[in-house]
Amino acid sequence: MKYEFNTDKAYDIIAVGRACIDLNATEFNRPMEETMTFSKYVGGSPANIAIGSSKLGLKAGFIGKISDDQHGRFIEQYMRSVGIDTSNMVVDNEGHKTGLAFTEIKSPEECSILMYRQDVADLYLAPEEVNEEYIKQSKILLVSGTALSKSPSREAVLKAVSLAKRNDVKVVFELDYRPYSWNSPEETAVYCSLVAEQADVVIGTRDEYDVMESKEGGKNEDTISYLFNHSPELVVIKHGVEGSYAYTKSGETFRGRAYKTNVLKTFGAGDSYASAFLYALISGKEIETALKYGGASASIVVSKHSSSEAMPTVEEIEQLIAEGSYIEAGVPN
Ligand SMILES: Nc1ncnc2c1ncn2[C@@H]1O[C@H](COP(=O)(O)OP(=O)(O)O)[C@@H](O)[C@H]1O
Ligand SMILES: O=C(O)C[C@@H](O)[C@H](O)C(=O)COP(=O)(O)O
């Protein structure tokens, strides 16, 4: 089964939310306290997804606010250099700084992220900085849940969603739950369910859906029966190495698998998965095939050092799919 988009649009995907900096430990198997060196990359989930999409050949744009300093300029220049339209990236003029994510790579299983996100520029994106003429030109508006965590970014995103819906732009909601950005899980549940109910496609991990639904150990069946009572037509639920599921409103279920790889770190999986899954859908591939693209892309990125720079090419993804070495894991949920 395929998922249809309005093909009469200049952009394939416009992402809204944070574009930040990742500082990834270059010393592995070591706690952060003992790590002395880090490499700098553009980061932030929606920026990573835009970068991954652009690298796969999609026409991508970005809406967000960046700091008026060396970090903001680095982000804009890098994103432009990989082919992303940055015309709707706004420079903050109130002194807000870029968010930083320091990553600790203790072992392939034990990775963590230390975020510096106090008063960050991306959460100051204002509704008046979201432009209807821009959004209406895209097949997809990709919304990151973290952008809902504070005002005025929250209202900017709600406006972007409403403009997308008025202009036949599919809203893809990536739950992207980052607890440190929110006041409470209850607040997350309120705003994430508000947007999920309006979205056309929702993507998240099982744990992220649990936060949105204010429960523990939630079942995929309950999630889809809730969401399919609202706007969503396609719901993707990820289960780490156990793979993922895509559910359609018309009743089909497709299973995606993770691919064997030499894991260096676990972060970057979700963003690379989303960009390749959406690339495949936009390219007219079957949903089942799109799950393969997502899984293969993620397995490539977890074997590499960064999330953004490491985004694979179509050829790399297709080669991995052709090799077909899935991780044999039980059926979750
Ligand atoms: N250790 C791993 N090895 C190979 N693929 C992985 C691994 N972890 C995750 N993936 C792939 O990345 C996808 C997304 O990972 P997941 O952990 O569910 O999301 P997130 O990174 O958003 O938390 C999975 O569906 C799987 O295909
Ligand atoms: O999203 C962030 O702010 C940090 C990312 O740039 C970082 O690379 C990361 O955590 C990606 O992980 P994922 O969301 O699991 O793909």
Automatic annotation (TrEMBL):
InterPro entries according to UniProt: Carboh/pur_kinase_PfkB_CS, DKG_kinase_firmi, Myo_inos_IolC, Myo_inos_IolC-like_sf, PfkB_Carbo_kinase, PfkB_dom, Ribokinase-like
This protein's pathway: Polyol metabolism; myo-inositol degradation into acetyl-CoA; acetyl-CoA from myo-inositol: step 5/7
SUPFAM superfamilies hit by this protein: Ribokinase-like (SSF53613)
One annotated GO molecular function: 5-dehydro-2-deoxygluconokinase activity
Domain Carbohydrate kinase PfkB: 12-313
Family recorded in the similarity comment: Belongs to the carbohydrate kinase PfkB family.
Stated role: Catalyzes the phosphorylation of 5-dehydro-2-deoxy-D-gluconate (2-deoxy-5-keto-D-gluconate or DKG) to 6-phospho-5-dehydro-2-deoxy-D-gluconate (DKGP).
Protein name as it appears in the record: 5-dehydro-2-deoxygluconokinase
Organism of derivation: Ectobacillus funiculus
